[in-house]
């Protein structure tokens, strides 16, 4: 695959269906696959649809494992917005992947740099990520790689921008001050090492980020643009998130004319 695959769906809900199709195809071919999972609102539709398919016996994730993209630093273990708890609620509880095979960076570690190195080593020991699910921030960040992040970065400590903290305040009762200022995040280089990337975005507030990601120049100021360099990256967006794409009609026509792409 030479270009970023762009799939524009009529509704936000259908982005989840397309993402779930990719995960189902992966586990059908490789039952012990390693899945990369993201938090935030964008991937929830994928997890909901996977849950329905697992319940129906259509797919099983039981033989696989998963690695989280990121984690806040300093949130107590019981905090509902600690990403480990979010993943348990939004993903693990819906599927048959054992919770002890879902791994995340340790945001409570005494030595955060060592925790980051350990996490990189654990992913390597697992054979790397087969398929990484991604969202994108309104400023173009992926995971917590904010604008200006090194495009070769690995898992590390990051300071969140004011924009990201404002975007995430909705999960903290709209209290920006309650949003942590630091996180541990897979780096852009780490993400790019996954064998397949599926990025999902919905809503008009993501339109500029999607435009830059697909049609803009590769730049550390829009970290998601690095997906243009990946050999198997798919961007799944609804009509609103696609509203700034100059080539939206082309992407729709190309996808419609390539039925073998459906199912990624």
UniProtKB/TrEMBL annotation:
Activity regulation behaviour: Allosterically activated by N-acetylglucosamine 6-phosphate (GlcNAc6P).
InterPro entries, sorted: Glc/Gal-6P_isomerase, Glucosamine6P_isomerase, Glucosamine6P_isomerase_CS, NagB/RpiA_transferase-like
Domain Glucosamine/galactosamine-6-phosphate isomerase: 21-230
Pathway: Amino-sugar metabolism; N-acetylneuraminate degradation; D-fructose 6-phosphate from N-acetylneuraminate: step 5/5
A biological-process GO annotation: N-acetylglucosamine catabolic process
Catalytic reaction equation(s): alpha-D-glucosamine 6-phosphate + H2O = beta-D-fructose 6-phosphate + NH4(+)
Residues of the active site: 70, 139, 141, 146
Name of the protein described by the UniProt record: Glucosamine-6-phosphate deaminase
Biological source species: Lapillicoccus jejuensis
Gene: nagB
């Amino acid at each position: 695959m030479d270009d970023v695959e762009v799939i524009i769906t009529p509704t936000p809900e259908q982005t989840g269906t397309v993402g779930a199709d990719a995960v189902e195809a992966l586990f059908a071919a490789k039952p012990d696959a390693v899945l990369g999972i993201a938090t935030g609102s964008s991937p929830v539709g994928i997890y909901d649809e996977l849950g329905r398919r697992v319940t129906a016996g259509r797919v099983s994730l039981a033989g696989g494992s998963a690695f989280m993209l990121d984690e806040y630093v300093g949130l107590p273990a019981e905090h509902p917005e600690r990403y480990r708890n979010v993943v348990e609620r939004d993903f693990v509880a819906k599927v048959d992947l054992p919770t002890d095979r879902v791994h995340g960076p340790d945001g409570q570690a005494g030595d955060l740099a060592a925790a980051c190195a350990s996490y990189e080593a654990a992913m390597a020991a697992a054979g790397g990520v087969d398929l990484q699910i991604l969202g994108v921030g309104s400023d173009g960040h992926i995971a917590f790689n904010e604008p200006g992040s090194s495009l070769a970065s690995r898992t590390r400590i990051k300071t969140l921008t004011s924009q990201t903290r404002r975007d995430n305040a909705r999960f903290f009762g709209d209290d920006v001050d309650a949003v942590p200022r630091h996180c541990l995040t897979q780096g852009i280089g780490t993400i790019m090492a996954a064998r397949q990337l599926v990025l999902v975005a919905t809503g008009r507030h993501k339109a500029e980020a999607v435009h830059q990601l697909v049609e803009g120049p590769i730049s550390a100021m829009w970290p998601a643009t690095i997906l243009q360099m990946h050999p198997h990256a798919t961007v799944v967006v609804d009509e609103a998130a696609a509203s700034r794409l100059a080539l939206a009609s082309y992407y729709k026509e190309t996808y419609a004319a390539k039925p073998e792409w459906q199912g990624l």
